[in-house]
Amino acid sequence: MKANMNEKVWDTQKTRRLTKLNAAKDKGLNKLVPNDRAIELLETVIIREDKVCIEGNNQKQADFLSECLSQCNPKVLNDLHILQSVLALPSHIDIFEKGIASKVDFSFSGPQALRLANLVQQQKIHIGSIHTYLELYGRYFIDLTPNVCLITAHSADANGNLYTGPNTEDTPAIVEATAFKSGIVIAQVNELVDNVPRVDIPADWVDFFIVAPKPNYIEPLFTRDPAQITDVQILMAMMVIKGIYAPYQIKRLNHGIGFNTAAIELLLPTYGEELNLKGKICTNWALNPHPTMIPAIESGFVESIHSFGSEVGMDDYIQERPDIFFTGSDGNMRSNRAFSQTAGLYACDLFIGSTLQIDLQGNSSTATVDRIAGFGGAPNMGSDPHGRRHSSYGYLKAGQEATDGRVIKGRKLVVQLVETFRENMNSVFVEELDAWQLQEKMGSDFPPIMIYGDDVTHIVTEEGIANLLLCRTPEEREQAIRGVAGYTSIGMQRDHEKVEELRARKIIQRPEDLGIDISKANRDLLAAKSVKDLVKWSNGTYAPPSRFRNW
């Protein structure tokens, strides 16, 4: 029977991949590519309008490959669609200014937030969406599948087996989506070794690898110097421990990054011990290995930590504490951002983090008019997962509070921990989030709200705790928020009589209502008062980055 001339071809993606690989082969580019030919490789295997996933994590960066991409000829490579969880380095933005890329889908932009905002205003970049981490990883396997990915690993053997070390982070999600959908995987590695300590990415998933001129950049993002923690942050931490963690018996949790949460971590061995809370709270974590967790670990508060990524200087300490961290036969931790995000979303009972703006409905965002920082994992960690089907004391108690005891599901606790004013005396509490203005500038269908107000259960400021679960009307919710908004314009417009009524119902609780002695809220309560103290707690196994050493 004669073949149908209009019969559909089912292997166009594989054919395109082979065409690219053959083009590289014709130029003498083998699997191990010299680093001085990296740009040539990229211009050979990437084509116009390709979806290119650059490994830019919270900490670990494919910095050499990103820099090479930014040096490609825009006449050869242009209109690329970049998929990237974190826009962290100057080269991540350079490719848009040079016209090599025109569209981006990302999660967080931290250090590049200002440049990104400027490019949006100049209409030099099109933002597809600002995603949560899990959302972006999920789309890698649905409709944002990379044609090419640029990743980084600690080492490779001659065959191209990769060892990612403690900072595995996004690598598995990126590679699987690319390698199993006819994409091309290119890795930069710090060193070529005879045998990798463990195989994190098998060689047959890797098309090309390059020994970079210098080790990939890793940002010590989660290191907080205890010397910078203030008395106000200590007071807020005391309120969280006594007013939220203790009554809800929070054992499984995630902390966002910041000095506020570092203060909580450093109060566990002191204030937490004083309240007889060891074994009752903060036992199981989805958390990067914060150095400020060391005293709590050493004091016996912590049973386990699964990490999104690692932290510079913590490798030896982690290796000495395999009962706490997830480590391999090589002794080193293997982190995994996708798995830890999933654990934080479904297996944790509480998320506590901070934000730049909160409105009167409790909506919050870190995306402001002049700074598009994105969200990272906060919308996942800071949301009530309706897919959850297991219970715990805190989950049940929060659900009962929200519904006057009539529950068919519980509630995850989502806490916003903020001082009422941030830098330059800008109020955290606002009538309207900048997100609405940004929506217009971005041409987005939705305003870039980080955590929706109906997911937020508690707001904690230096004034006290607002338990939004107990609010029964929008008016009560608004006054509860105003009631802890301090001397901001939002706080000054509170209905004093209504706020006192809410206080009588324990919807608002001041430090004195919780029996907290404010005179004790000082640095004497910290288990470690300096980075040097953290090193002592670790028995010398914590090796802080040089910029945190002052001794």
Brief descriptors of the model:
551 residues, alpha/beta, Glutaconate Coenzyme A-transferase, eight-stranded mixed sheet, 19 helices
Summarize the structure.
GO terms for molecular function: transferase activity. This protein is α/β, with parallel strands linked by helices.
Could you characterize what this model shows?
InterPro entries: MadA, NagB/RpiA_transferase-like. This protein has 551 residues and is α/β, with parallel strands linked by helices. It has three domains: 29-211, Glutaconate Coenzyme A-transferase; 222-348 and 517-541, no CATH class; 351-509, Glutaconate Coenzyme A-transferase, CATH 3.40.1080. Helices cover 31% and strands 15% of the residues. It contains 19 helices and 20 strands. The chain has helices at residues 12-26, 38-45, 63-70, 90-97, 113-121, 133-140, 171-179, 231-248, 259-274, 294-298, 315-319, 337-347, 378-381, 393-402, 435-442, 474-482, 489-492, 496-504, 531-537; strands at 51-54, 80-86, 101-108, 126-130, 148-156, 162-163, 184-192, 208-211, 252-255, 284-286, 304-306, 350-353, 357-358, 364-365, 367-368, 371-372, 413-417, 458-461, 464-467, 508-509. α10 (294-298) links the parallel β10 and β11 (304-306). The termini are far apart. The model has no long low-confidence stretch (mean pLDDT 95).
